[in-house]
Batch of 2 targets.
Target 1
Amino acid sequence: MLESTRDAYAKALLEVGRKNADIVVLDADLAKSTKTITFAKEFPDRFFDCGIAEQNMMSIAAGLAASGKVPFASTFAVFASGRCFDQLRVSIAQPGLNVKVVATHGGITVGEDGASHQGIEDLALISPLPNFTVIVPADSVEAAQAVEAAAKTQGPFYIRMSRSSTPVIFGDDYEFSIGKSVTIRDGKDAAIIAVGIMVAPAIEAAERLTADGIDCRVINMATVKPLDEEAILKAAAETGCVVTAEEHLVRGGVGSAIAQVVAENQPVPMEFIAIERNNAKSGKPELLLERCCLTDSDIEQAVRSCISRKG
Amino acid sequence: MQLSKNNGSLSNGASDNAGAFSLSDAELLDKAKTIRRHIVEMVGKAGSGHPGGSLSAVEIVTALYFRALRHNPKNPQWADRDRFILSKGHAAPVLYAALAECDYMPVEELSTLRQLDSRLQGHTDMTTVPGVEMSAGSLGQGLSFSVGVALAGRLDKRNYWVYTLLGDGECDEGQVWEAAMAAAHYKLDRMIAFVDYNKLQIDGWNKDVMNLEPFTDKWRAFGWYVIEIDGNDFGQVFSAIDSAKKVSNQPKMIIAHTVKGKGVSYMENNVDFHGKAPNEEEIKKALKELK
């Protein structure tokens, strides 16, 4: 089954909006794309279209939060993180205001819109901001639960959703918890720590490696900040090598953050599946993933190479 | 300091408001002087800071905190309080001085401005200073923030007023005009904003750095009800607030013509004192003038 995380966002927003009358939603003329339009239809008085003025939207959200509202502000990841960086930093992060930034169209799988619209630097920009919790859900089930968790938890959040439909990984019994990673598959020879849409190919790669007798652990690190350091160190200690996988630039991404934890506490060989250069272009999402070496085969190869570097 | 002859007595102003403070005209003039002395002393002691744009806004801030604003220093988070949002965050000294004079914090604390571990940062921090409504410092965000505060007030059916103080140079920022458009679009008539139009910004006169004129026309064109006043004149500040409150369905902008460094002779219209502290000699001279 396929479903996009932005569709899950639309449904979850309605759920939380029905429960909590203080939840308000802001968008910047992209309500049909970010899917906040669903909320707007049911709660027109609690929805504010700010027009094509993302910076204004973020500071308005800050003012709403300072007055007791729980604003969800949505636009594409490139605009939410890049265009609004200063507003997120000064209006929201530094005072720790209760604003939920839900950015859709994250990563290169935005596809045909091309480089300007592919948000592949957002995690590097947002993660260092004080007070922000950063989440990249792996599928629609986790996306919905992340939205519910953010609605209930005080403080600023950045949640990255995808445009494309992706495999549903988790069942109805899945329980997302902020800051806790999930070990999807246990293993002792290597660990793949993946986020977002890279979790599905990571599972695929691990399955394929079993044919060669390689027993690979797969961890879904949905909360990018704060990282589940305990799980990272356990994986490093027990498997002896770590491969990270993310739909983000390699510099400043999740792999960098995980490498810092590993290097400081439990140094082991690491490989990084991520975008090496910002050479993205227009194209179909699956072709872009191939071009940027973000496929299950790329992960498989990285695991083999990482294992060969063990001491 | 002279009250304007054309605008009647101060008592015409904001009399419908049951604020926590209600100073007489003479007391207000005294209070303004006290606040000016605090600004000179605190910036002087800190050795850095922004005296010019703090001094130009003294009458606006004093008029608000000591008569117009409904607020309660014993309960800074009172849900129905009127809000004052300082968007030009570098004018923190004038806000800190007013808050201290209202007992939001001890007056002695003003001397800790800009020191390590002081609550009084160079630019405002809403998480540490009671009474500060917004963390500012990066210009252009306060009017947008105010739009959010006003929208929340409307949703909650509270009838508080949202006052915002912008700098003139700050209006170079594009975000100010995004907020201007939004406030008019949402018909936020509980918003009353001031521009402290002292005509100077760091690199020189507004007209040379980035011309703002025709400034009132711009705000009108963006859908605001605009009043133009002498912003260093209490009488005019109060009558502007009064007229602004009578206008519904649109946000209100009070273009307050002021003098940068007002009240300290050598700082008046002197851009050098935008972001420079007076030395010991200069502090003495200023305090003498502000007796």
Target 2
Amino acid sequence: MSTISTDNLVVRYGAMAVLDGVNFLARAGEVTVIAGPNGSGKSTLVKAISGEVAASGAIIINSRALSAYKGWQLAAQRAVLAQETTVAFPFTVAEIVSLGITAGAMRVERPASMIELALQRVGLSGFGSRRVQTLSGGERQRVQLARVLCQIWEPVSAEGPRWLIMDEPVASLDIRHQIALMDLARDYAKAGGGVIAVMHDLNLSAMYGDHVVLMKSGRVAAAGGPAEVLRPETLADVFACPLHPNVAPSHGVFVLPQSTLVSPALAYAAE
Amino acid sequence: MAEMAFAAEDQTRRSRVTRPALPQVVIALLVLGVVVASGISLTAGASDASALAVAGHWLGLGEVNAIAPRDLLIVEQIRLPRVVMGLLVGAALAVSGVVMQGIFRNPLADPGLAGVSAGAGLGAAGMIVLGGSLALPAIRIFSYATLPAAAFLGGLLTTVILYGISTRLGRTSIATMLLAGIALGALSGAATGVLVYMADDKQLRDLTFWSMGSLGGATWPKIATMALVLAASLAALPFMARGLNALALGEAAAWHMGIPVERLKRTAIVIVAAMTGASVAVSGGIGFVGIVVPHILRLAIGPDHRFLLPASALLGGALLVLADSVARTVVAPAELPIGIITAIAGAPFFLWLLLRRRNVLDL
């Protein structure tokens, strides 16, 4: 089966259960969005799936238990883009991206020309010889995206679909680059790969998520298609603030936030 | 797959060449540099013994009696072991600097600054003063290895404590690391002081002689011990270079790329402790090589550990041999401890480095 799934997943930091019995499912060919308030366990879920934190309960990647993978086998099957990656030494952009090429167990010979190809794909063509430290936050994030893409270049391998796992990937990007990154992720899923993304922006979640998982207090509060999950009652329960989901004919679901005090228009009118 | 829609605009920004030299060229030049530095060191000294004549003699050139036995003795028995020892110790110090900087993810990490050398020194001093009373037969048999082994244990213990204190959840605080290094160094120094106080006259002489930091005590058995440790450590490095590169992005990112991070860190810590311990045991405290050499090379060829590690070994060896030549000649016929030379050259360099990084460092 071409899925990543968890069964009764529990992660504890000390006595506190950050994940408390999570049953999660993501299918290859889809963009699965994980959303939810701060501290709901989104990042921890992604870390558990990436094999980064110890967890009890089952994690299955492509019908095989996570624990049955060796580190390099995992690296060949999934890549992880963090919210922010700091680089310790003055590496060039090309050197960073090339780390993705040599990651994991590469059966296929990957040419060095892939570096420039990946940089082109993230809109950083010609940046290869620049030092990473001289770039802006958004550019650095796209360099990391290029590296991650090199690691799982072909969306499907002999061992099944490859997975692009992203933890708040668009946090440092402006709106245009947010859209560009999510377009790229959607393309990856359309080509047969799997995409799992932690997102804060509910509108991007609705726009790009084929499957949305809402987390609350270490559990899954709701899961399904955007229209199914992003409903007033569910959102009010999960985020504990007034949100107004709606459907635009051209757009699908969108979510409008509202001040808890009084709407801005009314505030001006009262003066 | 579609490319990001904004490629065209970004292409207008000019890329700059940031690396002045090709790593392979630099490494080739450094090999030459090692040969030249060794030649200078073999020739320089209080005696005017001609290294060229001796080299000719080795190669079977020239008249059999063209060379004075005294010159042969000086070059073969005194200067040559010293040069070889200098190359080995310099390489070990520079490479331990690179490896330590790699696992701590910080260019300011250095076995000397972080108290690892002091810990190794305590181990060595402990062996000199207390080793005799242990009266283990093994100590007599492996007398050349016991001092490095004790220094290794001291260095290993210090590195493990240092890492435990300064690294939390895969993030190393450079401020904590340097401060913990000061504390550990002071503690090791105090304990060494107690040992000096306890030592009898002969041990005191050994301690003093050893702690001055000199290549003067170079003997072939010591060289063999040092060479063994260095060879074993260097042999592990090619397998670590890619891991250290990946580790520059953080431990989580390295793990995501398939690097066995915990194993890498453990191996690196053992290697740093072994090389620092062996260096300290054979030549005392020689500072700043591990911080100056990698930094110069990162500026020249970049931080890729596949090139940085071998290049550092070569430059470290060459620089230490040159420093030793200076130490032997500036106040000839007496000589300065080499640690003084490396500190005079290295400490201002380190200050300059701090000055340059002041805004980044943010202690």
